[in-house]
Amino acid sequence: MKTSKNMTIESESKRNFLVGALALGLTTSVSSAFAKSKDDHHHHHHVSDDKAQLVDAAIDCVKNTIVCRDHCIELLKTGDTTLTECLDISNDTIAMCNTLTQLSSSNSDHLMAFAKVSLAVCQDCEKECRRHKDKHQACKDCMESCSRCIDAIEKYMA
């Protein structure tokens, strides 16, 4: 029979594996899109430095927000509801930044409109995590990655 400590270690290992697999999957699909874009010189779309920075920031945001979300879930399991709002916002942020990554790397015509919505979601997440950054490292890391993503979105939109 597994002890609670072993289950926690096992859960943590699974989470770390999934976060790494997600990051690898996103990085691989984005890298192949960039390579294809750079090889296709006569195609009018290209991946700009601003879009590359946007993709990097969004991937980083997804990774740190998944860790933050999982931390919120673990606290909820113990009966601590102080991070319930953080959990809700983190789910939105993960979805938005995943999509932002895909639209950025595929040179979508809808990227600018989507970036505006993503900006608002990242700002909400950054603000919520700021409230908890002194108590929870996962929230601090998420807040910082959201801040970098906000900067990258604003730079792209400028």
Automatic annotation (TrEMBL):
<dbReference type="InterPro" id="IPR030913">
    <property type="entry name" value="Csp1_Cys_rich"/>
</dbReference>
<protein>
    <submittedName>
        <fullName>Four-helix bundle copper-binding protein</fullName>
    </submittedName>
</protein>
<dbReference type="InterPro" id="IPR005560">
    <property type="entry name" value="Csp_YhjQ"/>
</dbReference>
<dbReference type="Pfam" id="PF03860">
    <property type="entry name" value="Csp"/>
</dbReference>
